[in-house]
């Protein structure tokens, strides 16, 4: 029987943490992947080179080193490639640096997204998946956070940029019939985790016996979600188009920062030396995903509990050190 051509997925941010895992899963599932990433130095670009090393060996993979704010360069990629679906993950991530570089966050996260939506429309790609964030829920007290909750009170430029990008996704889907799924990720951790995020910073310091800076008393909580679970959710969204949906991908098991640190201590067999600083105003007090919609629409259920995920993460971290 003749096999149909694999679908071609353009993944932006493919050299990053989540994007590189997604790319490998798509390739394993017989998709063609076109990666677009500018390998910027938000963290060491050598880490990103390592992230794409396996994918580069696959003939169904093509890498473009392109900035998503460069509309002309992006347009050439769309001209050269027959794209069936865009999964847009490239962004300036991280809440705290967004207070230092708000204009950059706006440019990459909002303008970059509009560039991709505009080309999706122009080249009649028809489908778009956007990697958004739990940060759009802001300092919301009502838990769990559900997709129908109002999200008009972002407390950082990063959150505001993600919410703005979501609104452009909605407008483009309504105006041009682009089938769009917005996925809101909740504190993703795991192998290749971002070096600027708490799981990486804490694991590194505790393993090395160095002090950690904890902002606040440790009573803020996060719905830490293991990267493989998030990628399974993105793949489910790749396979099931919707006219327009917003879907949370979170673990639905929030954990307080102190409990998170204690779990790393238990796995590492070492006590953390904690150095306390006041809480940062852009850090929200909690995140907690209602995942009823993901279960219903994507048949998605996170499978990795925090201790299992952190064990894998610490293992990866220890093995990845020179
Ligand atoms: N990791 C999390 O906990 C988390 C939580 C919520 C949302 N998200 C979102 O998920 C997506 C992926 O996050 P991640 O944790 O893998 O981050 P990451 O920084 O590891 O990956 C983002 C990638 O985008 C690329 N990129 C940034 N600016 C670019 C530009 N102008 N042009 C081209 N490429 C550019 C970077 O080089 C990087 O490889 C982001 O949109 C992020 O906002 C992540």
TrEMBL record:
Organism whose genome encodes this protein: Candidatus Beckwithbacteria bacterium GW2011_GWB1_47_15
Span of domain NAD(P)-binding: 10-312
Protein's name in the database: NAD-dependent epimerase/dehydratase
Cross-referenced Pfam families: GDP_Man_Dehyd
Domain of life the protein comes from: Bacteria
InterPro entries, alphabetized: NAD(P)-bd_dom, NAD(P)-bd_dom_sf
Claim: NAD is one of the keywords in the record: yes
Keywords tagged on the record: NAD
């Amino acid at each position: 029987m003749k096999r149909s051509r694999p679908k071609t997925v353009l993944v932006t941010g493919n050299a990053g943490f989540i994007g590189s895992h997604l790319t490998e899963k798509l390739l394993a599932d017989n998709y063609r992947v076109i990666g677009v990433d500018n390998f910027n130095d938000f963290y060491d670009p050598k880490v990103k080179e390592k992230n794409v090393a396996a994918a580069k060996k696959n003939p169904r993979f093509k890498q473009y080193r392109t900035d998503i704010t460069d509309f002309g360069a992006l347009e050439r990629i769309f001209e050269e490639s027959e794209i069936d679906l865009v999964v847009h993950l490239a962004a300036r991530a991280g809440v705290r640096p967004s207070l230092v570089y708000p204009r950059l966050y706006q440019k990459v996260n909002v303008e970059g997204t509009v560039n991709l939506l505009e080309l999706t429309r122009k080249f009649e790609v028809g489908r778009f998946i956007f990697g958004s964030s739990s940060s759009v829920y802001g300092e919301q007290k009502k838990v769990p956070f559900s997709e129908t909750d109002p999200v008009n009170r972002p407390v950082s430029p990063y959150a505001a940029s993600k919410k703005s990008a979501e609104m452009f996704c909605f407008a483009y889907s309504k105006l041009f019939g682009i089938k769009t799924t917005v996925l809101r990720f909740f504190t993703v951790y795991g192998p290749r985790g971002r070096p600027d995020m708490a799981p990486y910073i804490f694991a590194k310091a505790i393993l090395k016996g160095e002090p950690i800076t904890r902002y606040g008393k440790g009573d803020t909580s996060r719905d830490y979600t293991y990267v493989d679970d998030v990628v399974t959710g993105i793949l489910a969204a790749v396979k099931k188009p919707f006219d327009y949906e917003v879907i949370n991908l979170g673990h639905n098991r929030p954990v307080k920062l102190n409990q998170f640190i204690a779990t790393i201590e238990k796995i590492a067999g070492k006590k953390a030396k904690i150095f306390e600083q006041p809480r940062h105003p852009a850090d929200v007090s909690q995140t907690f995903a209602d995942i009823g919609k993901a279960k219903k629409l994507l048949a998605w259920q996170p499978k990795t509990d925090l201790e299992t995920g952190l064990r894998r993460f610490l293992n990866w971290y220890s093995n990845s050190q020179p």
